[in-house]
Specification:
This protein is of the alpha/beta class. The chain folds into 2 domains: 221 residues, Rossmann fold (3-Layer(aba) Sandwich), CATH 3.40.50.300; 69 residues, 2-Layer Sandwich (Alpha-Beta Plaits). Strands 6-7-8-3-9-10 form a 6-stranded mixed β-sheet, sandwiched between helices. The chain has a 4-stranded antiparallel β-sheet with strand order 2-1-4-5. A 4-stranded antiparallel β-sheet has the order 12-13-11-14, with helices on one face. Helix 3 packs parallel to helix 5. The longest helix has 16 residues.
Amino acid sequence: MHEPILELDGLSKTYPGGLKALDDVSLTIRKGEIFALLGPNGAGKTTLIGAVCGLVRPTGGTIRAFGNDLATDWRKARARIGLVPQELSTDMFEPVIHAVAYSRGLFGLAPDPARIEEILRSLSLWDKRDTRIMALSGGMKRRVLIAKALAHEPDLLFLDEPTAGVDVELRKGMWAIIDQMRDKGVTVILTTHYIEEAEQMADRVGIIRKGQLIMVDEKDAMMARLGRTEAHITLEEPLKELPRSLAQYPLELEQDGMALCYRGGDGTGRGKGEVADITKALIASGIDYNGIDVRESSLEDIFVSLLGEKEEQAA
């Protein structure tokens, strides 16, 4: 079991006016993992990152990073934390290499041209090192933000919506970069509303809604526990009712009896097995079908259904 690198205990933030951006959030991040924090806009993702990075002052709870309490030992811990913000907050007239080297100096590290070159090369920015940031494309500007965050060699890196507004090609490039960081032992926490990003990259997923962490689990365990199989079977002739041989399965007649819809399974493959059994039972009962469409639920389906359930409970 990897040691904890970040521990949040009862973290809360209420803004003047009463808006509760974080509501009693407790979370432990393990060294070397990629953790994805999913949630709709306004759920508290950026506030949580801001609290850890010293940009937001919590109103309750504790934050420990690398064993240090951030309330008393902030400077020591902050030097080991990198942040790639959503917004470009850098001098647009500066050449890329100066901006990245300056970020290193901000944390009191000695100049290291070889390290800066290595970072820029890994992000395909070396050829643009003398280009002013304002002249770069949106995707390249985002890479400069990552380079700046990596310049002081952090052990924990926050990526706040790292691929928002970036095309698919660049998004995949970003995923490869995040993989490289993990290989070097960097712990990565990313917020995203691209659920495929969490599905592709993360070891664990947390879902946050209205400032509350409503679920945290290993991604694969979450898929297994909450996943579903859905199958639509198109029939040759309409059925008035389900045959007794199919009564044990979670089936419904749809489209005026011309289709059977199966919703079941548990993300472990059981659903596919049941669908196969259903088709055999149809054939044995002399019921012909001419089409079958099977799909496994994605992390997105789980996310949407979880948020929907919570909304209903709150109503």
